[in-house]
Amino acid sequence: MFSLQGCKIKYSLNGASIPPEAKTISVGFFTNNTSLGAPSLSQRFTEKLRDVVSSQTALGLVRQNGDLQFEGYVADYNVSPVAIASTDLAGKNRLTISVSVKYTNKFEVSKSFEQTFTRFADYLSTESISAKEPELVIEIYRQLTEDIFNKAFNNW
Predict the structure, then answer these.
(1) Interior CA angle at 27 toward 63 and 147, to 5°?
(2) Distance from first CA to last CA of the chain, Å, rounded?
(3) Is the dihedral of CA 7, 66, 116, 122 positive or negative?
(4) Which of 33, 39, 55, 76 has its C-alpha lying 20 to 30 A from 96's C-alpha?
(5) Which helix (H) or strand (E) holds 147?
(6) What's the pTM value of the predicted model, to 2 decimals?
(7) What is the pLDDT of residues 36-65, one digit of tens each?
């Protein structure tokens, strides 16, 4: 009756639109190009992005040259005051992290991009950044990887 030979069907897991011919994905090591951030920032981000793409797609994770590829670096790590408590003291501080990402889609080149993603989390100025940093980074990386995944696979 109907012939679908010329149609290109995309499959979707968790709302993700992935070219049907894509079988592998690679997430290169994201280097730390910040002067303030802990050396482990890049490793933790790379692992988080790998976890997200492998848990939310059926693509095979390969070391390099995947059909779909992520690479980049942690571009900024910044702590700044955001709310004033008194004339000399900040009530809250903000940790901001930016990640520069290059995404390459070998099958749909128009979906490839290079973009810097930025997210932040606030904490009370009475708390030290060294004590709060682990939980803040976890939350910021969750948001960043969600943004990156949505840009790559949901065209947001």
Answers:
(1) 165
(2) 36
(3) positive
(4) 55
(5) helix 129-153
(6) 0.86
(7) 888 899 999 999 999 999 999 999 999 999
CATH number attached to the domain at 11-153: 3.30.160.150
Q: Are 127 and 85 in contact (CB under 8 A)?
A: no
Task: Report how far residue 118's alpha carbon sits from residue 19's, in angstroms, rounded to the nearest whole number.
Answer: 27
List, in sequence order, every residue forming a beta bridge with 62; answer none if it has no partner.
Answer: 26
Cα separation values, 100 from 19, 32, 133, 140, Å: 24, 10, 20, 14
User: Cα angle at 84 between 80 and 87, to 5 degrees?
Assistant: 115
List the domain boundaries for the chain: 11-153
